[in-house]
Specification:
Elements: E1 8-12, E2 18-22, E3 31-34, E4 39-41, E5 54-57, E6 60-62, H1 69-72, E7 74-75, E8 81-84, E9 88-91, E10 102-103, E11 115-117, E12 128-130, H2 137-143
Parallel strand pairs: 7-10
Antiparallel strand pairs: 1-2, 3-9, 4-6, 5-6, 8-9, 11-12
The protein binds zinc ion.
C-alpha cells in the first residue's frame, strides 16, 4: 500500500539525526521503501528540503512525505539496500530488526556538483559522497543495474553515457 511501511520505524541515528530502521526482519530482495510519488522539477522544490529528495531523472525529484521513512533514510557507503528501477529501495541482504536501513546516495544522484561529507562508519567509507559518475569503476560494476534507472547508459541507446548537467561535454 503506498505510504505505508509496516516493517520500518524511525529512530535516532547518532550524528545523522534520525534514521529509518527495520522494525522486523527484512529478507534479501524484499521491497523496503518505494519513493514513487509526484515527480517535480528541482526548481519547483524549496532548497531547504533538497536533502530529503530522491532523484528519479535528470532534474526530476520526488519529495517524500515529511516525516515518512523515505524522508529519514540515510546514506551508507556499505549499504544494506540498493535502488531498483526508478523509485524502489530493495534489501540487498537480510536485515535484522533494529538495523538501520540505508542505501548509497551515489547510486541515486546524477548531479555532478553533489558533495556530502560522510561519517557512516563503514570500513570502506568514502568520506565524501559524490554523484554516481564519480564512483570508482569497480564499485559501479558491483552495483551493476542496482542504481537509479536514469543513471544507466542503456536508457539512451545510441547516445552514449547519460548527459551531464554541470559539466557540458565540449567534445
Ligand atoms: Zn561513508
Amino acid at each position: 500500500m503506498p505510504g505505508t511501511a509496516p516493517k520500518l520505524r524511525i529512530g535516532p541515528a547518532g550524528r545523522k539525526g534520525r534514521g529509518t530502521f527495520a522494525a522486523t526482519r527484512i529478507e534479501p530482495g524484499e521491497l523496503v521503501w518505494d519513493y514513487a510519488g509526484e515527480e517535480r522539477w528541482i526548481k519547483e522544490i524549496p532548497k531547504r528540503v533538497w536533502k530529503y529528495c530522491f532523484q528519479v531523472d535528470y532534474d526530476r525529484y520526488v519529495l517524500p512525505a515529511s516525516g515518512s521513512p523515505g524522508w529519514f533514510m540515510n546514506h551508507s557507503c556499505e549499504p544494506n539496500c540498493v535502488i531498483m528501477g526508478r523509485t524502489r529501495v530493495v534489501a540487498l541482504r537480510r536485515i535484522e530488526p533494529g538495523e538501520e536501513v540505508a542505501f548509497d546516495y551515489s547510486t541515486n544522484v546524477g548531479w555532478e556538483g553533489f558533495s556530502m561529507k560522510c561519517g557512516c562508519g563503514a570500513k570502506g567509507c568514502r568520506k565524501v559522497v559524490r554523484s554516481y559518475q564519480s564512483l570508482p569503476e569497480d564499485l559501479k560494476g558491483r552495483y551493476g543495474a542496482c542504481v537509479s534507472a536514469f543513471l544507466l547508459p542503456a536508457r539512451q541507446p545510441g547516445r552514449g553515457p547519460p548527459r551531464r548537467l554541470s559539466a557540458p561535454d565540449l567534445g
